[in-house]
Amino acid sequence: MPTVGVSLHFLNLTNLLPKIMTLKSFSLEAADELVLRYPALSALREPVVKSVEILCASIRGGGKILTCGNGGSASDAEHIVGELVKSFILPRPITPKQREQLEQSDFADWETFADKLQQGIPAIALTGHPALSTAVSNDIAPELVFAQQAYVYGRPGDAIIGLSTSGNSKNVVNALKVARAFGLKTIGFTGSKPAQMDALCDVIIKVPAEETFKIQEFHLPVYHTFCIMIERELFS
């Protein structure tokens, strides 16, 4: 059965992740706003909070976030990464120490970098890399296109977000299986129907819709809320 808990898959991971702590009230306000704006998503407040706790623990532990999906969900996977790697709502200036490192670099334009670079969250969309993706599809198996990348990029304590409107997309399901086997935390986005993804995710976000476009319409405000909450936790 799926769970919205945060228990680790392997006992030896307890030393790799910091203790999952209660989120700031400032962050939780974003979850409250989500269900206020979208009453149909009110049942998702707890899984949203649990997901953000897992993702923040991963990042604070030096981990990264992987994302994957097909079609419109591939765009969503890319969209999530775009909001994480650069600033989303809040400013994310580099640290004073990093600014000092740039100043000591002796590059004449160091101030341009110091003023414009932004702190980011390590995140990789497995939907890009066309040469790699087509090579895996041709040389290994199309259904392993995300699993191969999850195996290579993933490390214990990292997290993967899989998006599938059916919840049964073979390449997403396989990526989640490999991720679980190698100690990554797994979060899934899907629709209301029972699906293979349900049992493979530490947290499953099941929006109240069955048609693909309606599911995707609900996914967007949920993952935007993820990104807002993560940013508030790490950069506010």
Task: Describe the structure in brief.
The protein is of the alpha/beta class. Helix content is 48%, strand content 9%.
CATH topology: Rossmann fold
Uncertain spans, ≥5 residues at pLDDT below 50?
1-19
**Assembly state of the chains shown:** single chain
Order of helices and strands: HHEHHHEHHEHEEH
Q: What is the spatial order of strands in the main beta sheet?
A: 2-1-3-4-5
What separation lies between the terminal Cα atoms? 36 Å
CATH superfamily: Glucose-6-phosphate isomerase like protein, domain 1
The largest sheet is: 5 strands, parallel
β-strand amount: 5-15%
Radius of gyration: 18 Å
CATH class: Alpha Beta
Helix content: 40-55%
Helix-and-strand structural type: alpha/beta
Global outline: globular
Q: Quick one: how many beta strands?
A: 5
Description:
This protein has about 240 residues and is an alpha/beta fold. It has a single domain (about 10-90, about 120-235), classed as Rossmann fold, CATH 3.40.50.10490. It has helices at about 25-35, 45-60, 70-85, 95-105, 110-115, 130-140, 145-155, 170-180, 210-235, and strands at about 65-70, 125, 160-165, 185-190, 205. Strands 2-1-3-4-5 form a 5-stranded parallel sheet, sandwiched between helices. Helix 8 links the parallel strand 3 and strand 4 (about 185-190). Helix 1 (about 25-35) packs antiparallel against helix 9 (about 210-235), helix 2 (about 45-60) crosses helix 9 (about 210-235) and helix 7 runs parallel beside helix 8 (about 170-180). The chain is globular.
